[in-house]
């Protein structure tokens, strides 16, 4: 049962992941959430755009708590290992699309540009900070962080294209080894 706005966000996220922003009609959203148009507009007066913005904010909050903050604050090796585990779990071993990445590639990129940029910049910055704390020079840490985030996104695409979650896990293992190599 949907009692408040936050209750509907997981279902909204999956609709946007499966159908994209444009393909996520209000009828489909209503069907998947169990809410009528009136209830949807009660929770999201700004319509589908507000729904997507709320989902992106929810994703950002999860990544801040489980990925970005630990990378900025915890011991670097442990933080990177936890990032790999958390990413594997969040993306269900490559079976779940990165909604922020999908929005970055789609026609809605400009509508949600700040949220998209913020997500990828925060991830790269937090990972680079961890790598600097582990002893890498700042430029090398930034390069390796960008490479790792790009590799994770590419591994998601590959695993989904091949329908092979093991490809995602293998990629994550290589990414972790490369991040921790001296």
Describe this structure in words.
With 182 residues, the protein is mainly alpha-helical. 80% of the residues lie in helices and 0% in strands. It contains nine helices and no strands. The protein has helices at 5-23, 26-33, 37-43, 47-73, 76-90, 99-105, 113-133, 138-162, 165-180. α1 (5-23) crosses α4 and α8 (138-162) packs antiparallel against α9 (165-180). It starts with a helix and ends with a helix. The mean pLDDT is 95.
Mean pLDDT: 95
User: Total number of helical segments?
Assistant: 9
Basic shape = elongated
Number of strands: 0
How far apart are the termini? 51 Å
Strand content: under 5%
Which bin fits the share of residues in helices? over 70%
Largest pleated sheet: none
What order do the helices and strands follow? HHHHHHHHH
Structural class: mainly alpha
How are the SSEs ordered, and which strands pair?
Elements: H1 5-23, H2 26-33, H3 37-43, H4 47-73, H5 76-90, H6 99-105, H7 113-133, H8 138-162, H9 165-180
Task: Provide a quick synopsis of the model.
By secondary structure, the protein is mostly helical. Helices cover 80% and strands 0% of the residues.
Q: Which tags fit this structure?
A:
single chain; 182 residues; mainly alpha; 9 helices; 0% strand; elongated
């Amino acid at each position: 049962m949907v009692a408040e706005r936050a209750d509907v966000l997981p279902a909204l996220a999956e609709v946007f992941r499966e159908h994209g922003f444009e393909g996520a009609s209000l009828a489909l959203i209503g069907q998947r959430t169990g809410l009528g148009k009136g209830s949807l507009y009660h929770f999201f007066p700004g319509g589908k755009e507000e729904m997507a913005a709320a989902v992106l904010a929810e994703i950002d909050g999860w990544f801040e708590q489980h990925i970005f903050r630990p990378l900025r604050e915890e011991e670097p090796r442990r933080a990177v290992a936890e990032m790999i585990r958390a990413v594997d779990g969040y993306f269900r071993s490559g079976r779940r699309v990165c909604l922020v990445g999908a929005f970055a590639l789609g026609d809605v990129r400009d509508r949600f540009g700040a949220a998209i940029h913020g997500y990828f910049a925060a991830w790269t910055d937090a990972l680079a900070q961890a790598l600097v704390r582990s002893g890498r020079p700042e430029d090398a840490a930034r390069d390796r962080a960008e490479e790792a985030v790009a590799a994770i996104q590419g591994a998601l695409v590959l695993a989904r294209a091949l329908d092979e979650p093991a490809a995602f896990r293998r990629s994550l293992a290589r990414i972790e080894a490369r991040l921790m190599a001296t």
